[in-house]
């Protein structure tokens, strides 16, 4: 990057410098710069950033990641960039981006005709647009379809409000857009106690306005799970009601419980975002040789983007999947899928 432009968005950058840490070879370990669009971009070396930029989707995801986290984003390294960018929820359909913009208006709207401002020139990475004009086109589409109302011509900062038609559209499309509840479907067992108490619960209920490195940092939602006793009593009505009232669900597939698959399937069917997690030892079917054959994650879900964890300090991959790292990844995933509840 001889030219002082951002590799991710091509804006002029400032404050480019290496971090103080140096490797034994005297080569800086990481670099950073400030970009008016992406915020503070931190990366291991320029070759890594160039590698990311060669893949258009990865580049858009990286731009989103830095813009979303502004100054608090982690340093992208060769070891972590795939894991970090995997947590960025790139819209899977063409209409996905349009829905994201409408969602944004909906989330910010506190009362009827509340005016919401978007800065088209700065905010386009947050909607996964390739450039300013793609976001402009989406806003024009929403305007032409009378889902938002505002000035006919716009540039830079634009102020629109949702029309009742736009509100109706999103409420029909999305389940419980104003809900603050996360439903947790999981195996109730000693094997998952640490997972729930040390990672899932604090991740969901933590304070989204704290620094991400703070222990009490989290997503700001409330957590709901139905305990096993109730399962035995088949209070499925209660279960269904709680899932219906949730904004999203977390389903931990550890233990291969039928109930968890049932709840996750029901939520998928409702169109709720479902975040899948699993103990890393339950990912694959366990060898029959050990005399205790055990099923792994069901084939249908194996291809999904699952967050893995372990609470076993003797595990060779403990440093990667321990509950502290898992909690961070879970918060990032929730933030990416439904946004933090600030
Ligand atoms: Zn940039």
Polypeptide structure, described:
- With 342 residues, the chain is α/β, with parallel strands linked by helices.
- It folds into 3 domains: 14-86, no CATH class; 94-173, Winged helix-like DNA-binding domain superfamily/Winged helix DNA-binding domain (Arc Repressor Mutant, subunit A, Orthogonal Bundle); 181-337, 3-Layer(aba) Sandwich (Rossmann fold), CATH 3.40.50.
- Helix content is 40%, strand content 14%.
- It contains 14 helices and 11 strands.
- The strands form 3 sheets. A 5-stranded parallel beta sheet has the order 8-7-9-10-11, sandwiched between helices. It has a 3-stranded antiparallel beta sheet with strand order 1-2-3.
- Strand 9, helix 11 (258-270) and strand 10 form a beta-alpha-beta unit.
- Helix 8 packs across helix 14 and helix 10 crosses helix 11.
- The two termini are 36 Å apart.
- The mean pLDDT is 86.
- It binds zinc ion.
- Zinc ion (ZN) binds next to loops.
């Amino acid at each position: 990057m001889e030219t002082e432009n951002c590799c991710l968005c091509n804006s002029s950058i400032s404050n480019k410098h290496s971090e103080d840490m140096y490797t034994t070879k005297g080569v800086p370990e990481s670099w950073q710069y400030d970009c008016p669009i992406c915020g503070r971009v931190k990366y291991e070396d320029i070759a890594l950033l160039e590698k990311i930029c060669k893949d258009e989707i990865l580049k858009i995801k990286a731009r989103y990641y830095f813009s979303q986290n502004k100054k608090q984003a982690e340093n992208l390294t060769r070891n972590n960039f795939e894991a970090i960018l995997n947590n960025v929820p790139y819209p899977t359909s063409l209409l996905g981006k349009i829905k994201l913009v409408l969602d944004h208006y909906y989330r910010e709207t506190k009362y009827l005709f509340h005016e919401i401002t978007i800065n088209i020139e700065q905010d386009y990475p947050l909607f996964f647009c390739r450039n300013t004009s793609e976001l402009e086109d989406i806003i024009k589409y929403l305007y032409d379809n009378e889902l938002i109302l505002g000035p006919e011509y716009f540039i830079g900062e634009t102020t629109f409000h949702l029309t009742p038609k736009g509100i109706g559209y999103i409420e029909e499309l999305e389940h419980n857009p104003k809900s603050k509840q996360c439903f947790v479907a999981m195996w109730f067992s000693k094997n998952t106690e640490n997972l729930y108490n040390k990672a899932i619960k604090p991740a969901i209920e933590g304070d989204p306005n704290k620094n991400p490195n703070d222990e009490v940092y989290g997503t700001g939602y409330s957590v709901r799970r139905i305990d096993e006793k109730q399962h035995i009593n088949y209070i499925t009505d209660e279960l269904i009601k709680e899932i219906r009232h949730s904004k999203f669900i977390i389903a931990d597939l550890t233990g291969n419980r039928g109930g968890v698959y049932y709840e996750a399937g029901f939520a998928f069917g409702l169109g709720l975002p479902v975040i899948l997690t699993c103990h890393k030892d339950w990912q694959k079917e366990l060898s029959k040789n050990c005399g205790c054959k055990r099923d792994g994650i069901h084939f249908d879900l194996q291809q999904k983007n699952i967050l893995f964890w372990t609470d076993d300090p003797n595990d060779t991959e403990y440093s990667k999947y321990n509950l502290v790292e898992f909690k961070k990844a879970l918060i990032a995933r929730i933030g990416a899928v439904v946004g933090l509840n600030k």
